[in-house]
Structures are given as structure tokens and as C-alpha cells.
Design goal:
8 strands, six-stranded mixed beta sheet, disordered N terminus, 26 helices, Amino acid/polyamine transporter I, 2 domains, elongated, alpha/beta
Length: 727
């Protein structure tokens, strides 16, 4: 018998020249990207001097040398976490140029089968961006880790839980960043208008926040890179103000470069010093954005901009504030604005407002991008993801999430009213994301990088212990605002876990009930079933087999389109899939049935094309498959005699006829069919399962899920088939 040509294997071997973003670029481009990154990445980190000292000393400064201890803590925290950990280690754990918590999980899932949906296919490893090296004798420890992860359901669940916790915390960050940044910046107006009450300042901040969230639908691309000059001006201003304060007040604070002042600070203040760490860590807010926004730039650009512009400017600003506080410790509640020279107040105030808005914008864009990636895990309902930029795939807008995050940000501002209380909540988000990144990075080092065990242990101990120290400090303020991100994250995690659990159960339900070949032939052979003109695309989560919704369709409407494709959208654990590698096909049943299985593969930063472009690309791919199938069959024969030549000619003619038939049916129209499944808990299920499946999941599906919009299917070409799954 002839070996079957199957593009589920053949097409996947065509490797395109898709290169990672930022690889092999010139120094000029790197410098250009470094400048652009200033506006997109560092707004949050750059506005942290607005509130760090007030968050560290909520009760005032007790001892003059406490300023030196805290300045030393701030400087060495900036060196240890943003500079050493992120800039020189974590950035290298990117997933083909993309970063963030989700990228780390995707990187791990590519090296070990830890995902709970069994849709891994060997041919996916041949996609250009997949890039898994062959095992070698030096990978025994990595193989051991891989086996442990794959064989332990608890480990797989733990990794997934950590990932969605990180995603939830970033979403919390997205609601707290606008609140604390805008409120801190607006509070400065009381320097010139002391009659304004705190409540009035809060309402001004709410108005700015409302405007900020209202314009999200226009996307960051409209104003994105105009941000860089504003933020650059901000960094020049804060560095200049810092240098002025050092010269005008007390340059001896530079002694804080000696870490012994940290030891003295803890010896002198004990528990109070430990509690103040929750304020110190606010100097690192926005650090995760360096990794999350890496896909827009590259490693060298981020390293250059942070090392030579951001770090020196922010450090100089903190030194200048410490110099001012050494002379005027009573002004610690509003250090930043009090330390500004009178002539520079209004320009600095205006730029501070703009910088706060930009910081909020960057964090929101990152939150949208991360959640859009989480959709490909199957752990969030299909919601409308609007790509606001044709040039940058990571710039997206999700209307439902924008409303929820915006409402949360305004409620937080109205409820807490001061940056100190918001800072308690904010610090937990920041440190939790740091800790999650450290744990996932440790797995990457073991499984992917295969580093020396001493290096891995040093990384985990140094950064893990530091972050744990900060986390225990900030958790002590749980009742003073710290509970907020936990509540927010628990709700979001519960929704994501519920959706993912039912999604996995539904996949297994369909997989266990796929239609066998004999039943499919019997269905098509029924006298009441007729083939109707056009192309039918039946969407299913399954990447193999005929889904159980197909017999339901035939029973309700005994007709099948002349060309019928069982369509699956599959998300690979890589950022992008090249267009040439998008579709893979196989034939279902004999050739005369003209039924096919197609898997459309997307990376987590890819967007699904519009319906017309999608169907045109799919049918072009199908015709190429038909052509290659005939060529493959011909190659199985030798041309020793005329009979074989005649067979090849007949096969080629049949392939051309089938391609013409597909073109003709495409002209008659494309109909998209989807299964509208009501998922209910099976009889005898536990009470918790019935609540999760029958109520929580059903509520989410009916109120958030719009699969035809997410899949870019026009309503006038959509046909839904109702079916009930008991899981």
C-alpha cells in the first residue's frame, strides 16, 4: 500500500526564515529602540520617587541616620532586583523575543508536556519558532526534571496556578498603577493651592482616571512613541532636581553607598525597619514591564536604556530627596514636591501628571497583552481582543477588561484616598510577581538552560530570600490595604481556574466521543443526507478525529456541504507562527467525500485574520495540500513502464479537477458552523462541581464568551448547532 501523504506532518517540515524580533540588528537600530523603550517601559519605574519615601516613613523620620539607611536600602534594592536580576538575567529567558510570566510558562510547556489539554503533536516541534534542541549527554538533570513535571499532576497544577496567579497580580497592578501614580502626581497641586482638601484632590484624580480609561479603545499606537520625549524630559528633570538638592543641602548622604548603614538602620529600629521594607520596595514598581514589554524592543535596547538613563536618573533623584530630608525631615509626607526648586515647580508638576498618565497607559497595555496571551491557555472566556496596532502585535485592547480594571482603579482611589494605603496594596502585587518570576526562572534554568546547579542555587537563594523578606514585610500591612490585591486576584484566579477546568473536561468529553470512521461513512451514506453547494467549516476544539457535534448536525439538518472541513484553532506555546506554516491538513474518509481535517496554528501574539482573508488562505492551503498529495502518491511509483506514467497523469488530472471543484464551491459561499454546547455536571457530581459547572461557568459563557467575534466569524455566515455535554 502507498504511504499516506499527510500535511499534518509534511507541511510542518517547511521551515520559514522567521527571525526573532531584534536579532542581528545594527547599533543604530538598538539605540533607536533604547530611546523608544524609555517612553513605553519605564513610566512606572520613573514615577516611583513620587511616593517611595512617604510610603517608607508613614509615621515620620525618627532618627537623622534613618534617611541614610533607607537610601542605602533603595539603592541596593534597585541594583539587586531591576539591574542584576531582570536586566542581566531574566531578560535572557525570553520566548523568541517575548517576555512576561506567560512567556516563561510557554517556554517550560514547550520542553515538557505540562499542559492539561492533550493536543500536543510531534509535528508542532518543526515550526520555525519552536526551537527545541536535541537531548544530549549533558541534559540528564533536565530530563529528570522533565519526567518529574510530566509524571506529577500536582506539579503541573502548581505551575499552572503560579502562572495564573502572576497574571492576576499583573491585572491587579493594572488597576493600582493608575490610582497611585495619578493620585501622587495630582497631590502636588496642594503645594500651590493649600486650600484644596484631600477629597478634592481625589476627585480631580478620578476625573483624570476616567479620561484615561475612556481613551484606551484608541490604542497606544496612536500616541505610543510620542511618549518617549515626555518621559525623557521627566528623567532629565528628576536627575537635575536630585543633583540640585545634593549641591544645595547635604551631599554627605552619599555615604549611604556604604551598605553598613543598612545594618545600623535595622539594629537601631528593629521591627519598625522590617515593616518599612514595604515602602522601600515601591522604588521597583514597573520593573516587570522591562520583561513583559520585551517583545516590542530587544535585550540590548532594554539594557542600554536602563543602565545608562533610567538607573542613574532615578538613583540621583532618591539621593537628592535624601539630601533634602536630612535638612527638612518634617517634609517626608510630600518629599518630591517639597524638594523642587520654586522656579521649576509648575513645569515639573505638568510633566509629572503626563508621566503618571503614561506610566498608567504602559501598565494597562501590558495587562491587556498578558490576558490576551492567557486566552490561548484556555483559561479565560473568549472575549473580543482588539488589536490597536498593525505594526505591534502586543498592543491590544479588551473592552470588558478595560471596564472592569477602570472601575476597580476608580473605586480604589475613592476608597483609600491616600497613596500610603494604595502603596500597601501595590507593594504586594509588585513583590508577588517578582517571586513568581523567580520560581519560574528556576525551572527554566533547570529544564531549558541546563545551568550549573551552583548558579541556579545562588539565583534562587539570593533573589528568593530577598523577595521573601520584602513579602513578609508588606503582608504585615494586610489589613491596611494589602488585602485588596489578594481579593482581586483570588476572584480572577477562581474565574480563570473554573473556565480552564471546564474547558479541559469538555475537551476530554469530546475526545472520548469522537465519531469512528465506520459511523461517519454510515452517516454520509444515509439516503436522506444530501450534499449541498458551498464550503462548510465546522469548528471544534479537537485537533484529531470527528467531533460528536457532527452527527448532531446531520440529524437536525440532513445535509453536508460539498466541501467540508473539520476546523480546529490551536495555540502553540510560542509567540508567532509564520503564515506559511499556519494550516496543516489531512483527508477524512475516501477522496470522493471531499472532507478534510484542518488545524490552524497560532502563537500567543498572533491575531486571527478577518473571515474573508481566513477562508481564502485556508482554501489556498487546501488546494496546495491536494496538489502535494497527488505528487506524493506519484512519487511512490517508478516510471519503468507506460502504466505508471498513465497513473501519474490520471492522479495529476484528478488533483486539478478537485482544485477546480474547490474553487467553484468557494464561489458559492462559505458557511461557518460551531457547536453551541451547554455544559452541565453529570448526575451524581459533587455539590462544588455542580456549582462550578452549572452556575459559574454558565454565567461566564453567557456573559463574556462571544466565540464568533473572537474567531472573526460574520453573523450572516454563522450556523450554531446546539448540544449538551454532561461532564
Amino acid at each position: 500500500t502507498l504511504a499516506r501523504h499527510d500535511s499534518l506532518y509534511g507541511d510542518a517540515e517547511k521551515v520559514s526564515g522567521d527571525r526573532r524580533h531584534g536579532s542581528g540588528v545594527s547599533d543604530q537600530i538598538i539605540h533607536h529602540l533604547a530611546f523608544q523603550s524609555i517612553g513605553v517601559v519605564y513610566g512606572d519605574l520613573g514615577t516611583s520617587p513620587l511616593y517611595t519615601y512617604s510610603g517608607t516613613f508613614p509615621g515620620g523620620i525618627r532618627h537623622p541616620d534613618d534617611i541614610l539607611g533607607v537610601l542605602s536600602l533603595i539603592l541596593y534594592t534597585l541594583i539587586l532586583l531591576p539591574l542584576l536580576k531582570y536586566v542581566f538575567i531574566v531578560l535572557y529567558a525570553n520566548d523568541n523575543g517575548d517576555g512576561g510570566t506567560f512567556a516563561l510558562y510557554s517556554l517550560i510547556s514547550r520542553y515538557a508536556k505540562i499542559r492539561m489539554i492533550p493536543n500536543q503533536q510531534a509535528e508542532d516541534a518543526s515550526v520555525s519558532n519552536y526551537s527545541i534542541p536535541e537531548p544530549s549527554s549533558q541534559t540528564r538533570r533536565a530530563q529528570w526534571v522533565k519526567q518529574r513535571l510530566e509524571s506529577s499532576k500536582a506539579a503541573r497544577i502548581a505551575l499552572f496556578t503560579v502562572t495564573i496567579l502572576g497574571t492576576s497580580m499583573v491585572m491587579g497592578d493594572g488597576s493600582l498603577t493608575p490610582a497611585i501614580s495619578v493620585l501622587s502626581a495630582v497631590s502636588g497641586i496642594r503645594e500651590k493651592a493649600p486650600n484644596l482638601t484631600q477629597l478634592q484632590v481625589v476627585w480631580i484624580s478620578v476625573a483624570i482616571l476616567f479620561l484615561l480609561f475612556s481613551v484606551q479603545r484608541f490604542g497606544t499606537d496612536k500616541v505610543g512613541y510620542s511618549f518617549a520625549p515626555i518621559i525623557l524630559v521627566w528623567f532629565v528633570l528628576i536627575a537635575g532636581i536630585g543633583a540640585y538638592n545634593l549641591a544645595a543641602h547635604d551631599a554627605t548622604v552619599l555615604r549611604a553607598l556604604n551598605p553598613m548603614y543598612i545594618v545600623d538602620y535595622f539594629r537601631r529600629n528593629g521591627k519598625q525597619a522590617w515593616l518599612s521594607l514595604g515602602g522601600v520596595v515601591l522604588c521597583t514598581t514597573g520593573t516587570e514591564a522591562m520583561f513583559a514589554d520585551l517583545g516590542h524592543f530587544n535585550i540590548k535596547a532594554i539594557q542600554l536604556s536602563f543602565s545608562f538613563i533610567i538607573f542613574p536618573s532615578v538613583a540621583l533623584c532618591y539621593m537628592g530627596q535624601a539630601s533634602y530630608l536630612h535638612k527638612f525631615p518634617q517634609d517626608v509626607a510630600d518629599t518630591f514636591y517639597k524638594s523642587i526648586p520654586a522656579a521649576m515647580f509648575w513645569p515639573t508638576f505638568i510633566v509629572a501628571i503626563l508621566a503618571a498618565i503614561i506610566a498608567s497607559q504602559a501598565m494597562l497595555s501590558g495587562a491587556f497583552a498578558i490576558l490576551s496571551k492567557a486566552l490561548s491557555l484556555g483559561c479565560f472566556p473568549r472575549v473580543q481582543v482588539v488589536h490597536t496596532s498593525k505594526k505591534y502585535a502586543g498592543q491590544v485592547y479588551i473592552p470588558e477588561i478595560n471596564f472592569l480594571v477602570g472601575a476597580a482603579s476608580i473605586v480604589v482611589t475613592l476608597a483609600f484616598q491616600t497613596t500610603t494605603n494604595i502603596g500597601n496594596a501595590y507593594g504586594i502585587c509588585v513583590v508577588m510577581v517578582f517571586s513568581i518570576t523567580t520560581h519560574l526562572m528556576t525551572v527554566v534554568m533547570l529544564l531549558v538552560w541546563k545551568k550549573n546547579i551552583a548558579f541556579i542555587a545562588a539565583f534562587y537563594v539570593v533573589f528568593g530570600a530577598t523577595e521573601m523578606l520584602y513579602l513578609t514585610s508588606i503582608l504585615s500591612k494586610f489589613a491596611e490595604g494589602g488585602y485588596l490585591p489578594f481579593c482581586f486576584s483570588l476572584v480572577l484566579m477562581a474565574l480563570m481556574a473554573t473556565w480552564h477546568y471546564v474547558h479541559v473536561c469538555r475537551y476530554w468529553y469530546e475526545l472520548d466521543r469522537i465519531v469512528p470512521a465506520a459511523k461517519l461513512a454510515a452517516l454520509l451514506g444515509r439516503p436522506d443526507v444530501r450534499r449541498v453547494p458551498g464550503v462548510g467549516l465546522l469548528y471544534s476544539e479537537l485537533v484529531q478525529g470527528v467531533p460528536p457535534v457532527f452527527p448532531r448536525l446531520v440529524d437536525k439538518m440532513p445535509s453536508v456541504h460539498a466541501v467540508f472541513v473539520f476546523m480546529s484553532i490551536k495555540n502553540l506555546p510560542i509567540p508567532r507562527v509564520a503564515a506559511a506554516e499556519r494550516f496543516i491538513f489531512r483527508r477524512v474518509g475516501p477522496a470522493e467525500h471531499r472532507m478534510f481535517r484542518c488545524v490552524a496554528r497560532y502563537g500567543y501574539t498572533d491575531q486571527i485574520e478577518a473571515a474573508k482573508d481566513f477562508s481564502d488562505s485556508l482554501l489556498d492551503g487546501l488546494k496546495l495540500f491536494v496538489h502535494e498529495e497527488a505528487a506524493f502518491s506519484c512519487s511512490q511509483h517508478t516510471d519503468d513502464n507506460d502504466g505508471d506514467g498513465a497513473l501519474r497523469a490520471a492522479q495529476a488530472a484528478a488533483a486539478e479537477e478537485e482544485k477546480r471543484f474547490i474553487d467553484a464551491e468557494l464561489e458559492r459561499g462559505v458557511v461557518y458552523l460551531t457547536g453551541e454546547a451547554d455544559v452541565v455536571a453529570a448526575p451524581g457530581s459533587s455539590l462544588i462541581k455542580r456549582i462550578v459547572v452549572n452556575y459559574v461557568y454558565t454565567f461566564l459563557r453567557k456573559n463574556l464568551s462571544e466565540s464568533h467575534k473572537a474567531l472573526a466569524i460574520p453573523k450572516d455566515q454563522l450556523l450554531k448547532v446546539g448540544i449538551t455535554y454532561e461532564i
